[in-house]
Amino acid sequence: MTRIDFYVLPEGSENGPALTAAQLCEKAVADGKKVHVHAPDEALTAEMDKLLWTFRQGSFIAHERQGTALSEPLPSVLIGNSEPPATHHDVLVNFDMAVPVFFSRFERVVEIVHGDTATRAKSRERFKFYRDRGYTLETHKL
After folding, report:
1. Which residue among 7, 83, 97, 135 sits deepest, i.e. has the most Cβ atoms within 10 Å of its Cβ?
2. Vertex 48: Cα angle to 80 and 107 (nearest 5)
3. CA distances from 38 to 11, 12, 89 (A)
4. How far apart are CA 99 and CA 113, in angstroms?
5. Is 74 exposed, middle or buried (0-12, 13-18, 19+ CB in 10 A)?
């Protein structure tokens, strides 16, 4: 069964959700996992694309945006707003306000809780969605 992890950022944190996601991607890739970053819009896709090149001195995480012509072998991280290929069902980093319909195909789902009251309320709705369906939930306060 899919494991769901909520990472709760402190209010007003200098480390935004995209930076936290980049750090989690780095850790997952180091563990040999394939990651799909579910970014609902172009702005977030571009931010993640840039961060995976630059978030830490000397680091680079192999990645591609979905929607571009992908060639084999696929990189460890795919960024996009549609369901990834079957090769990338280890870790889902969900930036959407809703639960993606394909979330249960992943071993692990990462939800990053941040922002204003309305954004946090949407995170609580996703938490309730997963809990009500019997998924194992972990909360990590950063």
Report:
1. 7
2. 60
3. 23, 23, 12
4. 14
5. middle
Tens-digit pLDDT string for the chain (142 aa): 999 999 999 877 767 899 999 999 999 999 999 999 999 999 999 999 999 998 888 778 999 999 777 778 899 999 999 999 999 999 999 999 999 999 999 999 999 999 888 889 999 999 999 999 999 999 999 8
Of 104, 120, 118, the closest CA to residue 4 belongs to 104
Nearest to 98 by CA among 125, 76, 70: 125
Eight-state DSSP code of residue 56: S
Other CB atoms within 10 A of residue 101 CB: 8
Residue type, 122: K
Cα 89 versus chain centre, distance: 12
Place of tokens 């809703």: 98
Entry pTM: 0.94
CB-based contact 67:80 (threshold 8 Å): yes
CB 51 within 8 A of CB 63: no
